[in-house]
Fold each of these.
Amino acid sequence: MFNIHPLRGRFVVRGRRTPQGIEVDVICGNMQMHPLPLRLDWANCSPTGFEWGYMGSGPAQLALAILGLVLPRHRALDLYQLYKGGVIASLPYDQWEIRRAQIDAWLLGHGATTARTRQEGAHA
């Protein structure tokens, strides 16, 4: 497992359904791809893995894992159910991508910031 907390710089989270099952990867700015960790150490919503496109335990685990890329544990735990309902539950069934900038924009829209968004605000 690669060290992902907090992930700095640009990245894309990509989910897709394959004949072997669901794959969710993080593609970093250097184009290296790594599986997104479940973050069961933070909360055990769905030990069987990620899901999306509805309100459930698999989408909750995905929301927590994605927010865990940019937020400390306590903030991710505060917001992941909202992120599940606002973003994860409406993702398309087959495949999707979420960019770092989209995560940051959602967080700003919900009154949350990351070190990156605070830094960008100071330079504006």
Amino acid sequence: MRSLSIYGGRFLGVEFRIHVAFLFLLAFLLLFPSARVLDPMIVGRSVALAVLVLLSVFLHETGHVLAARGLGAPAKATVLLPLGGVGLADISPPLPNEAGTLTRELRLAAAGPLVNMFVAGVSGLALTAFHPPAFLWTFPLITTDALDRSFFWINVFLFAVNLLPAFPLDGGRLLRVWFARRMDYRMAIGATGEVWRAQHYLLRPCRRAARAAAVASSGAPPLD
């Protein structure tokens, strides 16, 4: 993971690294159908949108860092990806299912999504103060043409995606805590994996429908 990332700086004593996936995100934004004519304005807005994603992920991970410092388990480094961050050293390693340990892991896992929820709430209030209410729900929700609305929805999506019950997402860690309060810790890890596999199977038709809708909206011929 470190070899596929670049140094982004240090904050609160933690090394933040940026994964090369952000370059692919920027390339996607530049090559998206609405941005085929690469004039300076479109390039600038595409870069700005990628920066907003990076900022939102940074805020998410800062929540985890602050929670870890408050619990006496400071993180050393984290890699920022478009959907969240990955700690290079696990700040909440598997430990026996004692009440204090589970409460600690609960607070660590919840900190990141709570930051995104707070940022989305503040930005949403600001948007409704300066725009008609319908502006917030105008499609596409995330676009280079409305960076302020995009910032709101980026944080909403980061909040929602990171609560999916899949480890190492925050939702998977929260589910693991829930299971660990009711069974042995190792069994809780296995149960969390089973929930994710079941969800992956059940959501397969939804993913196919989403891909088909994306192809239809882009005007590209469907893939066989």
Amino acid sequence: MSDPEVLGRILVMQSVVSNLPDEEGMFGFICRGLEDVPGVTSVSWEPQAPAEASGALRKPVKMGTKEFGALVFEIAQKDLFCPYEPYLDNFCFMVAVILEGRFQRQLNERQTASLTRSLAELEKAHLKIIESEKMAVLGQLVATIAHEVNTPLAAIRSSASFLLQDLVGRSEAMLDFSRSLELEDFTWFKSLLARKPREYAAGAGSRARRHRLSQALEKAGVVDPEAMADDITLLADPNGEGALVDAVLRGKGEVVRQAARFLETIHASTIILEASDRAASTVADLVGYSHGQEVNERTAIDPAKELNTLLRLFPGLSLKGLGIVREFEPGLMVQGDRDKLNQVWINLINNALQAMEYHGNLILRTRSVENGAEIVVANDGPPVPDDLKEKIFQPFFTTKRPGQGTGLGLDICLRVVGAHHGTLTLTQEESLTVFRVFLPD
């Protein structure tokens, strides 16, 4: 039988630790407070797993598969300590939630500093290029692009900061919510938080699935069935949605909602950070344009995985009338500079979407060919006129409206692919405009 006074002290500690400013002070407070648990002689914080297991009881502080360390209990009387173990497990999980929130904040702060440095470097490069007569025109273009890139970067940084504050707020709200749950519901809640959030697919099949779920939930009398359908879609694939629907109908909808909101916030923050990386990489490519496109470290790359990731950065992919066709060879890998090749895929996808005005089919294909691999980005929009097929690879040439392009994109693609000893070609195949990248083994 556990002592209510001891349990009360544990709950009070859960409320206090989130407000402690640094981890050293937080774990000192925790260790001192938990030494009052019956049967315990001492408590210590262990930031890493020991090389050899000790005889003490190790309680990991982890969230999902991510472990931050462990609280190590020296136990004098096991029978006195056992009643408190489930509550200490929950306490360790709450500490992990707090540490994850702090980790996300530090990650955003580092990203903001990196973006600031990138913009400063861009300004320096702009001034240097302007001093060179030979590159004066490029200097003017970089100045224009710097202005245009600075605006979305500022929005990204602002959004990341907002999401971070929202994440911290959700952490505290989730602590309060978690303490209200029975032990069985709390265990299930932790398993939901350990899941990776599923992406909201843009296809008609995903929309039909959410509509079907919403109708079923509405018939069952669930409040706000559309929002609950979105939460279930985020947490489970079609094979696993039935268990969540049953839980909602048993009155566990708030558990599902809280888990989905927390994972959604982390997912959104991750996407913004990825977009920031891509934007900063674009700035770096423009700064280094006059110095060529040297390939840095070569690594093994899964082009299908990279293409799927980059598609998330493009707005409007869920618009009616736009289809994404993926024809990927399983297990295909290429060797190259990941960041520079990703810039190629971004430029080719962006050009295709703008050429077809987000209406039609975007085709992405990867396959093995003799002595290498082929990556195709194609669309069924208006064809490129014959007299422009050679010109579009020239620097500063563009067919886009003012403000939509600088004419550097395809030339950068050509130089990056060339630095990988590959080729980039444009062909018209029946109703498709096809850009084909060959990368040798």
Amino acid sequence: MLHTTLFYQLFLISFMINFNFENFKKTLKNLTKDIFISINSNEVCGFCLFSDAGAMSLSAGFNTRSYLENNWKKDPENKEYYRWYAGEWFDDGIPNDELDNLSWKLFNAEYSDDFAKHKNQFFNTIVNVLKELNNEGFFNSKGDDFVLVFCVTDPDDEDEDNELKWMKELNNKVIFKEYENWAQKEY
């Protein structure tokens, strides 16, 4: 038991000192595929990865057409809100042990003295994973109205500024324009 605990502590120290974004990207890409496949629904109309402003966690969520339409019926004045705000989606925290373990590692990771640089690289890595999967056609079967999102819970000003850029990178022109119009009214 002591040997295992010591080995585990050394592993964590190694991970914390040497946060490897390339390994993180590979792990996240495979994990995102697994999570999305596990949803196993033809009704999926949106998928989201999100983190917190401290770049210490990672979660996934998805929305379904029936859930979205039900919210539209209940609150027709806020249709765009239910389409774009992942916190109101069908599932805004897909349970996944591997994602939880990755979040735990992120929470305990140490980074260079420049937190802003670390955070920016972390967020860009997540967006790039989603963008790569999208460009590879991974989400194509979900239709032209499929929404792909990366968002930050409790965002700071820079995160809010980046949301528009991320939406543009992750979605087709029509979807992005719809989001942009809504965001301009909303913010």
